[in-house]
């Protein structure tokens, strides 16, 4: 990859919006995923294809009825329903939040997902400043929880510029950190039952030498 600037600044965040989809999922056991949407700059209306899923048919029925009748929904057409899954064409009267993202040069780069009153967004920006301006504007109107912010295609040279050191120094630091992380990972794995960092070390081991799992010295499971 050629040395250069960031190709995209990505932000994943959860938002609690005053919108029909969020209100429906806050009140009903249904998850709404929006793989496609289109915002009309002339009318401000947002055209959506919404996929709904629930633990059972009754929860799904309740959720899609609530979405159909929700304030702010100007059009609803059920396209498909099978079991506890359905697809609907929905038009919202307005969506100020997405307009804010677009006004700051951002883009929605993944499906929207509404669950338990929260909507997860995957956003892309040309730089961190545009992302910060968008989040600041949204934060004044809505409840936000940033999940992940990811600079893309960061180079050794640009990391060096950020830290005020040479790219050689950055490379050495990364290698040292990598060795420490790998060493810690091997040590942690070696401590798990049934794992040995040397695959040949147990070939002559005494089968009776294993610790009693009921012993007070037995380690608790450290799985995450």
Can you describe what's shown?
Strands 1, 2, 3, 4, 5, 6, 7, 8 and 9 form a nine-stranded antiparallel β-sheet that branches. It is built from six helices and nine strands; from the N terminus they run E-H-E-E-H-E-E-H-E-E-E-H-E-H-H. The chain is of the alpha+beta class and 224 residues long. The longest helix has 24 residues, at 167-190. The radius of gyration is 25 Å and the shape is elongated. Helices cover 32% and strands 29% of the residues. It folds into two domains: 9-151, no CATH class; 157-198.
Q: Which stretches are poorly predicted, pLDDT < 50 over at least 5 residues? A: 1-6, 194-224
- Beta-sheet strand percentage? 25-35%
Shape: elongated
Percentage of residues in helical conformation? 25-40%
Total strands: the figure is 9
Following the backbone from N to C, one meets helices and strands in this order, namely: EHEEHEEHEEEHEHH
Radius of gyration, in Å, reads 25 Å
Structural class: alpha+beta
Query: What is the CA–CA distance across the termini?
Result: 35 Å
What average pLDDT do the residues reach? 76
Q: Work out the count of structural domains.
A: 2
User: Helix segment count?
Assistant: 6
Major sheet size, sense and barrel closure: 9 strands, antiparallel
Pfam families: HTH_10, HVO_2525_N
Keywords: Transcription, Transcription regulation
InterPro entries: HTH_bacterioopsin, HVO_2525_N
